[in-house]
Design a protein that fits this description.
With about 575 residues, this protein is of the alpha/beta class. Among the domains are: about 50 residues; about 130 residues, Toll/interleukin-1 receptor homology (TIR) domain (Rossmann fold). Helix 8 packs across helix 14. It is globular. The protein starts with a strand and ends in a 10-residue tail after the last helix. The relative contact order is 0.04.
């Protein structure tokens, strides 16, 4: 049986009522007390020895008394996330049956000695320290004892701002029970190859959203890692990811990979079977397939190449096209669909399938039957011409530097004037960007308030001002470039919408004065890097509970009236 307590009951003045409810349900095993107003929890006035699961998340707890925790001898799960704990409660050491401990999102200051002492002797512990302010991995993980003081099954160290790890040694020394390691959303520039050495039960290693620039050359000898996530890093090559061992699913998406040097890069020991089954290379910078790149991916069971800017005028695409026509192992963003050319673009930005694109012969630079000495001679001649031309231009620029500087200044002034003229000739005062789910709110309240007196702004909305029968994409772009300003209505629906992300990109290109309106309170961790950057660098209208006329502040910002404070 599980009891969920109303937040209105959870206060120090009403602990007796919680105790009364527990005494009425002596067989209760799971208790959830969240979003309350506890600060300090001393000895409880009721018996809790029968509990196996206790959740105290989203309170304001700063201290848990040892006498309060000690009777919880049968607890298996203890969730203390989103509180104000500054130290790990000492009483946890008495919970010898504990298997799940969540201390995430607390301002915990972690002395390594204290944590080792509290958790000493625990086995198969699933520990979450997410968003705990760390600079390096906790000392209880590091080598130094013949056997570790605590054995983990899952370890979550995400959002901890970890930037330092030892360059040598096996970090998770003798943690043979470990199945999941989460080091995502940190500041790691380096990860040692032996981080997973000897972890024969490890299934998942998440290193996404870090700052890794080079392949870590992992040693996964002896077992198969189910998932290795290196997405959202800064890798520029697919080489040197795994030196030994096998991975079922490797995620390299959202990096800066444009090539790999070795045609056997994904083969075990450079020959035989591949060491990875599913490879995600989507959202990278792959534009061509030279130097054995097609040969390398042809051995894989599945490879995702979606959203790469493939240059279909590059001659290496012909080899790639032949392979595409013979295989079904390529997917596009997780689904079976044709890969599209990133260049050239067709009419209205349309993109052709790579496999059917006809590469013109005159676009290819073919070097068949050309002697190597001839190629070297041509390269040297071109280099000599470039050097002579550079010297000539440098001399001319130096002797005429004042005239050149004055001309550049005139061009800049002319460009600025043209931009002012183009803005003054735009049809609408403001374009409103919003998600489909916020349509009624925008049309019935926000736009209506801005367009009414005393502001009388002329707003453009894609659901109202598009011409019947016209293309939605082209019509929306026309409205954007025909407006002088933009109001962005930020909500959870907006940040989750792929259409809204694309629309914001075009708004940024149009150079608008952009006003951000936060319709509901947004968690910063859910925001995309682009929206987070805009909110960090621009004055925006934050969400305010109970406000029913936000268009007043928006209209005042657009009409030039002064607004005090850092946030509008």
């Amino acid at each position: 049986m599980r009891l969920d307590f109303d937040p209105r009951l959870v206060s120090m003045s009403r602990l007796e009522r919680v105790g009364d409810m527990l005494r009425q349900h002596e067989k209760t095993r799971d208790v959830w007390i969240s979003h309350g107003d506890w600060v300090r929890v001393d000895a409880a006035p009721w018996n809790m020895s029968h509990l196996t699961e206790l959740v105290l998340s989203w309170n304001h707890i700063e201290h848990l008394d040892t006498g309060w925790l000690k009777p919880l001898r049968n607890v298996i799960l203890l969730n203390l996330e989103h509180n104000n704990l500054k130290t790990v409660p000492n009483g946890i050491r008495f919970l010898r049956k504990l298997k799940y401990l969540d201390l995430s999102f607390n301002p915990v200051i972690l002395p390594d000695i204290q944590l080792s002492w509290i958790l000493h002797g625990f086995r198969e512990l699933n520990l979450s320290l997410a968003s705990t302010p760390l600079k390096h991995l906790p000392g209880l993980l590091l080598r130094g004892e013949t056997s570790p003081s605590v054995l983990f099954r899952q370890l979550d160290l995400s959002f901890c701002n970890i930037s330092l790890v030892p360059e040598e040694g096996d970090i998770f020394h003798r943690q043979y029970l470990l199945e999941v390691i989460n080091l995502s959303y940190n500041a790691l520039h380096f990860i040692p190859p032996t981080i997973v050495t000897g972890l024969l039960n490890l299934r998942i290693l998440d290193l996404s959203h870090n700052c890794l620039k080079h392949g870590p050359k992992f040693d996964i000898s002896g077992h198969i890692l189910h998932s290795l996530d290196l997405s959202w890093n800064m890798l520029d090559s697919a080489d040197d990811i795994v030196e030994k061992g096998s991975v079922h699913k490797l995620n390299l998406s959202h990096n800066k990979i444009n090539s790999w040097r070795k045609p056997y890069v994904f083969l075990r020991n450079g020959e035989g079977n591949p060491w990875v089954n599913y490879l995600d290379l989507s959202h990278n910078l792959i534009s061509s397939f030279g130097n054995g790149m097609v040969e390398a991916i042809s051995h894989l069971r599945t490879v995702d190449l979606g959203e790469n800017v493939i240059n279909c005028y590059d001659c290496s695409v012909r080899e790639f096209q032949v392979w595409l026509s013979r295989t079904n192992s390529v997917v596009n963003l997780g689904v079976r669909g044709p890969l599209l050319c990133g260049f050239p673009e067709g009419f209205h930005g349309s993109r052709s399938p790579v496999v059917t694109f006809n590469v013109p012969d005159d676009r290819c630079f073919v070097t068949n039957n050309v002697a190597p000495t001839t190629v070297v001679g041509v390269i040297l001649a071109i280099a000599a011409v470039i050097i002579v031309f550079s010297v000539f231009v440098t001399v001319i620029c130096y002797t005429s530097r004042y005239d050149v500087s004055y001309s550049v200044h005139l061009l800049a002034m002319k460009k600025k004037w043209n931009m002012l003229l183009s803005k003054s000739g735009r049809k609408y005062d403001v374009f409103i960007s919003y998600s489909e789910e916020d349509r009624d709110y925008v049309m019935s309240k926000l736009a209506k308030g801005m367009e009414g007196p005393p502001y009388n702004l002329k707003a453009s909305l894609r659901h109202r001002d598009l011409t019947l029968g016209s293309s939605i994409v082209e019509g929306a772009l026309t409205l954007i470039y025909n407006s002088r300003n933009t109001v962005v209505v930020l909500s959870h629906n907006y940040i989750d919408s792929q259409w809204c992300r694309a629309e914001m990109e075009h708004i940024r290109r149009a150079g608008h004065n952009m006003v951000l309106l936060e319709r509901e309170q947004l968690e910063r961790w859910r925001l995309s890097p682009e929206i987070r950057y805009l909110m960090d660098t621009r004055v925006y209208l934050p969400w305010q509970e109970g406000e029913d006329k936000p268009w007043i502040r928006v209209a005042e910002a657009l009409t030039g009236k002064s607004v005090h404070g850092k946030l509008l």
